[in-house]
Amino acid sequence: MTPARWGGWGAIAALFGRSKRLHWGATADELDAVLPGDGLIPLPHLQSTRAISIQRPPEDVWPWLVQLGQGRAGFYSYDSLENRLGMNIHSADRIVPAWQVVRVGDDVHLAPEVALTVAVADAPHALVLRGGVPIGSGPSPFDSTWAFVLQSRPEGGSRLVVREQYRSRFAWTRLMFEPVAVISFIMSQRMLRGIRQRAQSPSTRAQPRTG
């Protein structure tokens, strides 16, 4: 095989890997769906849609979403990796009543000094966060939304669909999107599995729902 052909196959493999990272677990219908939070950022430069099935109804999954955040229940992902960046994350394994209220305009912290703002809070269907991560002492170089959408399944249980959208404020920051997409995939698939494990756990099913 010629080098040109090898290069062509390599490009195809890279594109396939990128699509898998951005669309992990999502169906074609979910990728095409208009979700809460869409439209907050016009013409995003990068979008990911990932999803997982959970064998519990939306009202049983929602309490795990509403308590997301640093200083709250964490993000149910790789705490050790997040804490190496100084985020001080400790993912909870229980529903905490004190963390069951979230309203539009509230801050949800990613780290002690970094927070996103609640843009949509529609229990038990959609939680949308908006904002960006600053670099150094400057403002965030991009605007983003992070949407968590719960949909009932006809056969029972839920689909949890998570969509991220990013729009660069400066041309040079588009170079950051591919590394961001890789990190987002690694952390998000772990988070989705973490939410599913907690929501389906027999030890948490009996806890009363609040909020």
SSE layout and pairing:
Blueprint: H1 3-22, H2 28-32, E1 46-54, H3 58-66, H4 79-84, E2 107-111, E3 114-122, E4 126-131, E5 142-152, E6 158-168, H5 177-200, H6 202-205
Antiparallel strand pairs: 1-6, 2-3, 3-4, 4-5, 5-6
Helix pairs in contact: 3-5
3D architecture notes:
- The chain is of the alpha+beta class and 211 residues long.
- It has a single domain, classed as START domain (Alpha-D-Glucose-1,6-Bisphosphate, Chain A, domain 4).
- The chain has 6 helices and 6 strands; from the N terminus they run H-H-E-H-H-E-E-E-E-E-H-H.
- Strands 1-6-5-4-3-2 form a 6-stranded antiparallel sheet, covered by helices on one side.
- A hairpin with a 5-residue loop joins strand 5 and strand 6.
List keywords for this structure.
single chain, disordered N terminus, 6 helices, disordered C terminus, 211 residues, Alpha-D-Glucose-1,6-Bisphosphate, Chain A, domain 4, alpha+beta
